[in-house]
């Protein structure tokens, strides 16, 4: 029994298991790509974002 035979027996014999695997994989993959792009954006824009500028959003004390 090879790798492909094992994957076929576990995932692709029943349509409900296959569809569940595809939907769950798409959800997990989307979250991974979203987090990766967000971290890349933060890395490339350090010091340029609104949160990084200390004087913005602060009120002067009376």
Automatic annotation (TrEMBL):
Keywords: Electron transport, Membrane, Mitochondrion, Mitochondrion inner membrane, Respiratory chain, Transmembrane, Transmembrane helix, Transport
Pfam families listed in its UniProt record: UCR_UQCRX_QCR9
InterPro entries with a match to the protein in the record: QCR9, QCR9_sf
GO cellular component, one term: respiratory chain complex III
Subcellular location: Mitochondrion inner membrane
Protein family membership: Belongs to the UQCR10/QCR9 family.
Its biological purpose: Component of the ubiquinol-cytochrome c oxidoreductase, a multisubunit transmembrane complex that is part of the mitochondrial electron transport chain which drives oxidative phosphorylation. The complex plays an important role in the uptake of multiple carbon sources present in different host niches.
Name of this protein: Complex III subunit 9
Organism name: Phoenix dactylifera
Upper lineage: Eukaryota, Viridiplantae, Streptophyta, Embryophyta, Tracheophyta
Name of the coding gene: LOC103720011
